[in-house]
Design a protein that fits this description.
CATH superfamily of the largest domain: Glycogen Phosphorylase B
Radius of gyration: 22 Å
Number of domains: 2
Order of helices and strands: EHEHEHEEHHEHEEHEHEHEHEHEHHH
CATH topology of the largest domain: Rossmann fold
Low-confidence stretches: none
Shape: globular
Strand content: 5-15%
Mean pLDDT: 91
CATH class of the largest domain: Alpha Beta
Structural class: alpha/beta
Strand order of the largest sheet: 3-2-1-4-5-6-7
Oligomer: single chain
Number of helices: 14
Largest sheet: 7 strands, parallel
Helix content: 40-55%
Length: about 400
């Protein structure tokens, strides 16, 4: 069998990471695939591994600077023709939307914002809100037409099923893996008295600054702890959505001198993130909208105690191996952080347990389950007898 992957709408972030790690860990021949052809922009293709069975193609796929109109035309007309010419038995569209006519195809749910009304409302009347509503329509249509649909969490499947209503007969849940570079066994936890002005307790929050990430509430909570005499610092790492960054800066300005313990580092290369985790004492994650919280997994794999939002799929991923808080309540955030700081025994327990739980999330498992599902859909949808000889 031959698998086609339509990745022209993967241009940055987690989508490219997922595709690159999936293909790096894949053993497609075990599932009956002799060749995998990827159509994507040049930047995406450069991130992919070299494999004998992998063909990278960019003769017709739009690049990073191409308008969404041209990308839509490529998806509607170009992909199907290219996949048929390549003799593909199935098409995988990991970006979440596919407008073309090639069948069978499998797509996956990646973005929860378009499907959660309370999160949409955070954007008000803006271009971002319009884009998310358009994305909901495009992805809902793709999900209904797909022959197979991959979810990353049970939470995502339940929420999207309630919105989309008619899902394909074949669906599955396949979580992402986590980069082995983050792996760091839990360290010895020091008593609260060991921290002070010369060795503050370092809190790390890695994530894009956005309306559903609530960095301003986290800053407020940390400032309150600092004002109460706790030697804490907060490192915020990640790119920013400008209106959300402006809100964060207004909060820091309002907090005054106490906010000097809070540092926003901006975007950093993914390869630099393990060093931030290694220098931290606690990983904090305050998002209220996620499909699969990769950053939470990174913190768990890094051996850190976790203080986490109680929204979305976070309890599904973290289980009972962290302390939860309401991400929109600075007092509740401060409570969770204070509880962890004051008990070295509790920090040691949750760090150990979350590290062990993270071991179940691997790219090898993700790749095996993904290719297995794609093969299952291809065989179920093939004309009778066509794949009997492994075509």
């Amino acid at each position: 069998m031959r698998l086609g992957i339509e990745a022209s709408n993967l241009r940055a972030g987690g989508g490219i990471t997922h595709l690159a790690e999936l293909l790096r860990a894949a053993q497609p021949e075990r599932h009956g695939f002799s060749q995998v052809i990827v159509w994507a922009g040049a930047g995406t293709l450069r991130s992919l591994p070299e494999r004998a069975w992998l063909v990278s193609s960019n003769p017709h796929a739009p690049g990073p600077g191409t308008t969404w109109v041209r990308r839509a035309l490529w998806q509607r007309r170009g992909v199907a023709a290219a996949a048929r010419a390549a003799g593909c038995n199935i098409l995988f569209a990991p970006g979440g939307s596919y407008l073309g006519s090639f069948r069978p195809f499998v797509t996956m749910s990646r973005n929860m914002q378009p499907f959660e009304p309370q999160e949409l409302r955070r954007h008000g009347w803006s271009a971002a809100a319009l884009r998310l509503r358009l994305l909901r329509r495009l992805q809902s249509d793709s999900f209904r037409r797909a022959d197979g649909l991959i979810f990353l969490t049970r939470y995502a499947r339940e929420v999207i099923a309630a919105v989309v209503k008619a899902l394909p007969a074949m669906t599955t849940i396949i979580p992402h893996g986590v980069d082995a570079r983050f792996a760091r066994p839990p360290r010895e936890q020091l008593p609260a008295a060991a921290y002070g002005a010369q060795r503050p307790f370092r809190i790390l929050y890695v994530s894009i600054v956005n309306v559903y990430k609530h960095q301003w509430h986290v800053a407020e909570a940390v400032a309150r702890l600092r004002a109460a005499g706790m030697p804490v610092t907060l490192d915020l790492v990640g790119p920013a959505y400008p209106p959300a960054l402006a809100r964060l800066r207004r909060t820091l300005a309002r907090l005054g001198p106490v906010a000097e313990c809070i540092r926003y580092h901006g975007a950093v290369e993914h390869a630099e993130l393990p060093a931030f985790y290694a220098a931290a004492d606690l990983c904090l994650f305050a998002s209220s909208c996620e499909n699969m919280p990769n950053i939470l997994l990174e913190g768990m794999t890094s051996g850190l105690p976790i203080a986490c939002s109680n929204r979305g799929p976070m309890p599904e991923v973290l289980g009972s191996t962290g302390l939860y808080f309401d991400p929109e309540d600075p007092d509740d955030i401060a409570r969770a952080v204070r509880t962890l700081i004051e008990s070295a025994e509790l920090r040691a327990t949750v760090a150990r347990d979350s590290f062990a739980r993270a071991q179940g999330y691997s790219w090898e498992r993700c790749a095996s389950e993904t290719f297995g599902f794609l093969a299952q859909v291809a065989r179920r949808c093939a004309p009778q007898g066509r794949l009997a000889s492994g075509e």
